[in-house]
Write a structure and sequence with these properties.
single chain
Length: 114
């Protein structure tokens, strides 16, 4: 399942009970303020609560999908990698998909190649 994690924490135990084994969680920043800038909503703490709950459940693979944006969250790349040191999490720095008016950020994205 791929999700932004906003409402998942309430449903996650039942989903795992019914066979969910893999979770891709979108989280572009570890900073609550930047989270609101990027997502245009509150909920950073809820996404982290979902991640913490997922780590306690018998889920085979947990991946964080992160879009790196120059000048906004690019300094956090190593912080995301650090999360993988002590927790069974994979971090994937993924390509930006322009939708919902966020195409204005396109020029600030960090490309996967130079």
């Amino acid at each position: 399942m791929t999700t932004n994690g906003i409402a998942l924490h309430r449903r996650l135990p039942a989903l795992v009970e019914n066979g969910l084994t893999h979770l891709n969680l979108s989280l572009d920043t570890l900073d609550p303020f930047k989270f609101e800038i990027i997502t245009r909503r509150r909920g950073h703490d809820t996404v982290l609560r979902t991640l913490d709950l997922a780590l306690q459940l018998p889920i085979k693979a947990i991946k964080l999908n992160v879009v790196v944006i120059k000048g906004l969250n690019d300094v956090e790349a190593l912080d995301f990698v650090e999360l993988t040191r002590h927790k069974p999490i994979s971090v994937r720095f993924i390509e930006f998909m322009p939708f919902m008016g966020l195409s204005s950020l396109f020029g600030e994205l960090v490309p996967s190649h130079s």
